Amino acid sequence: MYNFKFQNPTKIIFGKGMIAELAKEIPHGKRILITFGGGSVRNNGVYDQVKQALANHHTEEFWGIEPNPKYETLMQAVILGRQKNIDFILAVGGGSVVDGSKFIAAAIPYDGEPWDLVCKHIRIQTTVPLATVITLPATGSEMNCGAVISRKSTMEKLVLSTPLNYPKFSILDPEVTFSLPKGQIAAGLIDTFMHTMEQYLTFPVDAKLMDRWAEGILQTVIETAPRAMDIRPDYDTMANYMLTATMALNDFIAMGVPQDWSTHMIGHEITAFAEITHGYTLAIVFPQLLRMMKDEKRDKILQYGARVWGITVGSADERIEAIIDRTEGFFRSLGVKTKLSEYGLDEEIISKIVTRFKMRGTVLGENKTVTPEKVEQILRMAL
Predict the structure, then answer these.
(1) pLDDT in tens, 163-199
(2) The domain 183-381: what is its CATH number?
(3) Is the pTM of this model over 0.85?
(4) Would 270 disulfide with which of 135, 281, 284, 349, CB 3.0-4.6 Å?
(5) Could you tell me the residue ranges of all domains in the chain?
(6) Fold for the domain defined by 11-176
């Protein structure tokens, strides 16, 4: 196990009716900017619950943060936040709304060009405090300090991270998930699964507790998925799904272990160029990345297959192929396509992604061996 430092300051408020706790958690006198995505929160009752809880607080609203939040949209919120002297942000929505709000929180007090915070990784000195009400479990952004921001004009999708952007608190009420479209649930389940994989499926460092935690998350996703995809999922199913998504990316299973993130980085580029839902891009990339990197990841693939899928019969090579097939089959069981061509994509997007990685000097993976040339092979295998 590697050396590590761990601290997660986010308070989690979990369960039915907990949106009412907003009034107690946000100090009176704060000038709150409430950020939203589309109009779904008006239809599922979340908007009314939030407004009722904050009836005695000063609030401003910003609507329209899209999936894969765009810099161009977020800058409108930054301008509003500065004009209204906002000193607290409440993100109400899924991971895109939370990620976008983290950028807004960092950009409002920043004197320079806000995009530099993303593309130049300038050290962030101060942010506007923020909290979240989660309506779509997936990203874990409600309990971590990271965000992924897109810029339409340059077709980029990049990471923003600062410890100052840990939410002060996050409210998770599983009842708000009952009306989610099944495509969003499928994407969220895959994102949760892959957050775990990026921190688990690398190489052994005898981090027994982290391995078991990660395997428990993977098993919970697999067990929960069929019921979560039902027409009428029950409360306990969605509660388990919601908490699993949070625990998959809040630094707990990252303690003392190597991390990969190749699948996410490649997937981000597919989204940047083709606007495909993030979770779907992971299902495209990961099976082929495993096939490409199976020698380096051999020990952990076999461990994953035995402990999570119960695959223990056959030669090592036979088991590895069966494990990869089972993983891809799980994605497809959620109704998610796993080939670029199934989305109408061809060699052109591969060329764009590889060219960008070469220009940036990008090398990915836990061993820094996923070169642009290997990325090209992975994507060709995924056609």
Answers:
(1) 999 999 999 999 999 989 999 999 999 999 999 999 9
(2) 1.20.1090.10
(3) yes
(4) 281
(5) 11-176, 183-381
(6) Rossmann fold (3.40.50)
